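Appendix B: a complete holo record

For completeness, this appendix reproduces one full record from the ligand-bound portion of the collection. The bound molecule is pyridoxal-5'-phosphate. The inputs are the chain sequence and the ligand SMILES; the output is the full three-dimensional arrangement of the complex, encoded as structure tokens. No fields have been trimmed.
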Amino acid sequence: MAYKTASTRETWAEIRLDYIQYNVRETKKQFDQDIHVMAMVKADGYGHGAVETAKAALAAGAEFIGVALFDEALELRDAGIAAPILVLGRTRPEDAAIAAKRHIRLTAFQKEWLLEAESHLEVGTTLSIHIKLDTGMGRFGLVEDAEIHDFMQTLKICSRLKAEGLYTHFATADEKEADYFQQQYACFLERIQLVKTHIDTFDFIHCGNSAASLRYPDQCFNMIRLGIAMYGLSPSKEVEDEFPFPLKTAFSLHSRIAQVKKVPAGTNIGYGCTYVSDTEEWIATIPIGYADGWYRWHAKNGEVLVNGRRAPIVGRICMDQVMIRLPVHAPVGTKVTLVGSQGDEVITVMEVAERLQTITYEIPCMISHRVPRLYIK
Ligand SMILES: *Cc1c(COP(=O)(O)O)cnc(C)c1O
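The structure of the chain with pyridoxal-5'-phosphate bound, as generated:
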């Protein structure tokens, strides 16, 4: 389901498509060879909007689109995106015919799947697949040598399947410690040799997520799968300053003061009366709540920006509203920034992620479809 781009609400997420394009272009510049960029737009573009993000990334030099689900690929096709799309998750083999018809590439890592998919394809049609190897992530992929040989033997008798790509995924590319990353990389090299005893060339070999692409550009073969960095976010706190250029964050979240009142000392605020004003205070109500993905955990040490100054969240977060304590009076309609900057003050996605003891990825993803996305080109 796509995000709303127009609404009567005074709460919205702003998406800088120009920043997404900047991040794609700058990333491409880090590579000598002609690298192919697969723009990762799963989960509705990590909460930014898959269609808009995909279009922006393609215009900035990405050539491929990556999604997790077959449904997500279909949604992009229906929206008129013609670029090659790869589904990284497992697709039902019975969907192979639709995938072939709509030029959607599927990931394969089970020989039974190959046979079933083949049986659903009509004579004369071809489905492009990317073979997935598990080199240490413990998720999708072929592991054992024998398993790989078996798979490749089976693939030979599936004349309607064409192996276009070969890939793996790293578990620790965003950690300072590189040993496990290098171990996985070495394993990938070895398994590529094994696969190549059956098929000697692939159009695309890929392993680099954002962290690997920006930290180890020499170990990315001829394609990268660019996700979080394209949105201008670091995959982890510990490698935040290891990127070769400053990322530009595309996502910010805003609202407007809906009511403001001066309350005397001892006033209870919100469900459970968990906050009681100390002195006379300015309390404002902001129309965003946990149903918008602004979860109750934000109440713990959460702050927002009003007129370039920090204002704490007070009391419990409601389904549709949250209350804040203003440092000085501000009228109804004043812009409130929950994620992003105002003047010199900034609340980064990383700060919000740390507040919730999670990673940057979750923050834009968790802002629900009730919040419209406003696109800035
Ligand atoms: C999500 C995903 C990526 C992108 O990862 P980022 O860290 O966001 O760059 C790459 N490959 C696979 C298999 C993924 O699932």
